[in-house]
Fold:
Amino acid sequence: MDAREATRLLKGVRAAALAGNRPPAAPRPEIAESWRRMLAGGVHPDRDARSRMLSAAETEERRQVSPLRELLPVLREGLLPALDQALHIMVVADAEGRLLWREGHSSILRKADRLGFGVGADWDEAVVGTNGVGTALVARRPVQVFSAEHFVSSHHDWTCAGAPLRDPRDGRLLGVVDVSGPLATMHPATLAWVSSVARLAERELRVRHLESLERLRAVAAPMLARLPGRALAVDAHGWTAAVTGLAPEERIPLPKRFGPGRVWVPRLGDCVVEALPGGWLLRVADSRTDAPAGRVVLDFSRPRSWSATVYGAAGSWSQELSPRHAELLFLLAESPRGRSAAELSAELFGDPTRTVTVRAEMSRVRRHLAGVLAHRPYRFAEDVEVEVIRPQDPAELLPHSVAPAVVGARRGGTGPGGGSRR
Structure:
């Protein structure tokens, strides 16, 4: 289905969803299967069981690391315009059934609060019974649950339609998008509407994946051109971006424990693995003298133009740094033993409790510097030499930073054009 056909379908299904209709009379297989699971699992139909709500900090931490964040613009564009008129709400849950985002008509949001259908709630099928979130996760296909098809009686005033969201890179289940509302305002075609928007969201992930492969290819191709042996560049899921000396394959299965160094890779054998921005360089080992990347240069010499350059046996590559990422890497370079999230939070913000923000930012940094950075605590890997190039004027070292260690380094300095190593 192309974009034009999908748009026509969405318009037609929205119109049908607003028209209203009766629920289907005959039980459907997915509902019958869910009820059997509920009976076997001991869920009580007249008891509104609820698990502990996630705190605001826990919810925000899940949001920061969830790939569902990338899908929100598509889901909102496809669903929200009709929700106010139809008295619906949209919820997005992760693969564990935890509700991470919720938007829609204000009166329906208030009713959902009374039902425990709020951000941070657990709507796993085994907790709250048959529902559009948890049942779609178990069935791994779109599911619509009308009124009394909900196993728990307190949910009978609601109807919901949920569609799973999968990562097209590896087929992993990411979560569910669900549209819920009072029974009188729902329509059987709502499920087709929600399913179509879910597929459009997955298509957005697929497009972003192809774009990330192009960026990886731009970095890796010049490096591969200089290598005499067999090598290839793959992303974190094993999708091939560039190859030399080997028959091209679309994807290489990577072992579960995968990182820099010497690794046995199916189909390739013994490989030397180096980190690249957005992926890995795999060199099929021809001798025991091969070694992974071993040097990083953090260049802070030019105001507002900070970078990290990684040097390895196959060559080098550079990554531009945002102010926050430059601060984090500077702090880690100044502390070879590493820092915890709380310690980094205290250094950056003067508040050790802002660990959610620190973990999210470190997660983003490590996507590009995997293998160079370690964690628990956060630090540069032991076999990596780190060089920091400072500006001639110490006052220009990350001038917008409030981190005490950075401010202290600005005041002390190391002399014009100074650098430091560890």
